[in-house]
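Input.
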Amino acid sequence: MVYALNMAGLLRKDEFQAMNKVGMSPILGPVLGDGARMVWRRILVLVCAVMLAGCLPVTSKAPVGTTTGLGADKALVGAWKGNNPGGKDFYFVHFLANEDGGMKAVIVSNGGGDDVTILRVQTAKLGKNHYLNAVLLLDNDKPVEGAMKFATIPLRYVEKHSRLMLYMLDQDKVKAAIRAGKLKGTIEEGTMGDAVITEEAATLDAFFAKPEGAALFTPYKVMWKVE
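Output.
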């Protein structure tokens, strides 16, 4: 599937070659095992749907960190490996630097199937906190439609000693912050209604630069750098 993306022009030649080096191509199936030719299509977007019967991740109308500058954290560039719940299945996330100063994230799992997930990624730092803004570009080999089209998924991350920890916004905490007037946003009707942050960029950044903003995130994934 990675080869097909290269042929379709979704990956540059250098990106394709970099992913081949860590086994993220069907050409190097033995590196990942027999089920290597697929992408973990549930990361960031659909893992919540599987676990919470349709709940989508918290999204924001504006990326986090526009006032300090969005870019590509060089520490993230390369391949990272993590384990799915249960420890049997693993996945690779390959961060590729774009010519426009951002990044792509291409996700591959050993779980079987032949789907592809690609995200556009921009990073920023607010105070002591590092943030990652992800926009889903391709899911399950299909263009993104519906609520997730062009939606920004803010995450917080900590990279240290070749370990990457990702934190996702907690739906309940964000809803509480919206209801308390600490953040502007919308909440869908029903107990499982999704939250969308609609705060303007400057106010959004000021909030997430504080410990109070960072506290809205909950641990999500842990990955290790593939050297």
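Helices lie at 2-8, 13-21, 29-32, 47-52, 171-179, 201-208, 211-214.
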